[in-house]
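Quiz preparation item.
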């Protein structure tokens, strides 16, 4: 596992929409993603900010919680809503290391989150421009500001390292459980290749 990134402390005078603050808060979201990795979850992290201060955090935990909705964004939204005693979160910005899926995008809009900032794109399930863009769907009655690509390289590298590590562990487990090869028959040697898939869903 890669070394956790040192979080950069957002400057007190920086506005939430400032580029420097965006990078700093995204690095805090990356720290949350590392927490997910430590628990064997896909490393995605989220942070909700209001008035330049962190209001709530979350990281992927669907496996540990046996909850298919426990994406980083949903975990952070639940925490923020509980803290404020309100299911609406106007004036808030959500930072997440991976482009939100359709479920999370709709939850963010139901919560009236003002701004969504994400790190790397998700070409499989991204609902902020990769597969579709729910944030710009004119038939919906709320539209959050959207910004992608903040700390994109660090966010993508973390996911790539995680899946690379998981594939290596799968191969090692398969190799350890393989029976000893049978004696060759008639000089014919047959190799059986049973590699795991090159990609895993994020």
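Solution:
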């Amino acid at each position: 596992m890669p070394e956790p990134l040192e979080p950069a402390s957002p400057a007190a005078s920086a506005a939430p929409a400032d580029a420097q603050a965006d990078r700093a808060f995204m690095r805090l979201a990356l720290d949350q993603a590392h927490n997910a990795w430590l628990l064997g979850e896909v490393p995605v992290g989220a942070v909700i900010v209001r008035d330049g201060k962190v209001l709530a955090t979350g990281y992927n935990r669907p496996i540990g919680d046996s909850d298919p909705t426990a994406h980083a964004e949903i975990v952070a939204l639940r925490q923020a809503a509980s803290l404020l005693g309100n299911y609406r979160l106007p004036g808030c910005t959500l930072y997440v290391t991976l482009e939100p899926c359709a479920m999370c995008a709709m939850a963010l809009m139901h919560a009236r989150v003002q701004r969504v900032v994400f790190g790397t794109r998700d070409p499989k399930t991204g609902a902020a421009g990769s597969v579709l863009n729910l944030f710009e769907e004119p038939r919906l009655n709320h539209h959050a500001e959207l910004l992608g690509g903040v700390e994109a390289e660090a966010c993508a590298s973390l996911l790539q390292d995680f899946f690379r590590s998981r594939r290596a562990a799968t191969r090692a487990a398969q190799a350890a459980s393989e029976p000893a090869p049978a004696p060759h028959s008639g000089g014919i040697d047959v190799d059986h290749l049973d590699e795991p898939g090159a990609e895993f869903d994020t």
